[in-house]
Amino acid sequence: MRPRTRRDAGFTALFLGFFAAAWFGWAQAGGSSGWLTAGSVVSLLVAVAGLAIGLRAPAEGSAMRDRAASRRYGIIVGIEFAVIFIGAVLLGRLGQPDYIPVWVAFVVGVHFVPLAPVLGDPLLRPLAVATCLVALVGLVVGLASDTEPSLVVGIAEGLLLLGYSLQALARIDRRPAESSM
Fold it and tell me: What pLDDT band is residue 30 in, cutting at 50, 70 and 90?
């Protein structure tokens, strides 16, 4: 596995930290929780740190510097959002809005698979599997108990994405850049 550039790691932490905060927020749909709020705050702090690192790093070496990779990324994310939207509308119309978080987590998990080679990050594959398992657990718990799927999926997905954001920052190549002089 190639070392992550500072820019790639920073923007990974930005995006996944932001979405971790959103998942912790979604977990609170049934009622507020101090530790879930703390999870959101920590996730947002990681996102801000990622933004600062990403903006201060040179663009050279970034996976998104390649036009073809950037285009594939846009297509994958566009398809992801469209599939999430269509599924959410369908679940709402079928009277099953409680399962929208399950659907979203599943689609997000699936989208990590084609993103792994585009972003040059093979660790997105195990994250994909874990995210799909979170969706499955949320579905089973929702069907078998009175527990809201948003609580199960929100907590688990928030923790997964926060953890992934932190490890993205930890994998930054900290060696000094070689001088071209």
Answer: confident
Domain count, the chain: 1
List the one residue out of 11, 9, 14, 20 whose CA is nearest residue 108.
20
76, part of any domain: yes
The secondary structure of residue 4, as a DSSP letter, is B
Entry pTM:
0.89
Q: Is 76 exposed, middle or buried (0-12, 13-18, 19+ CB in 10 A)?
A: middle
Each residue's pLDDT tens digit, 49-98: 999 998 888 776 677 788 888 899 999 999 999 999 999 999 999 999 99
**Is residue 61 in some structural domain?**
yes
Neighbouring-strand partners of residue 48 = none
Which range marks the domain in which residue 133 is found? 6-170
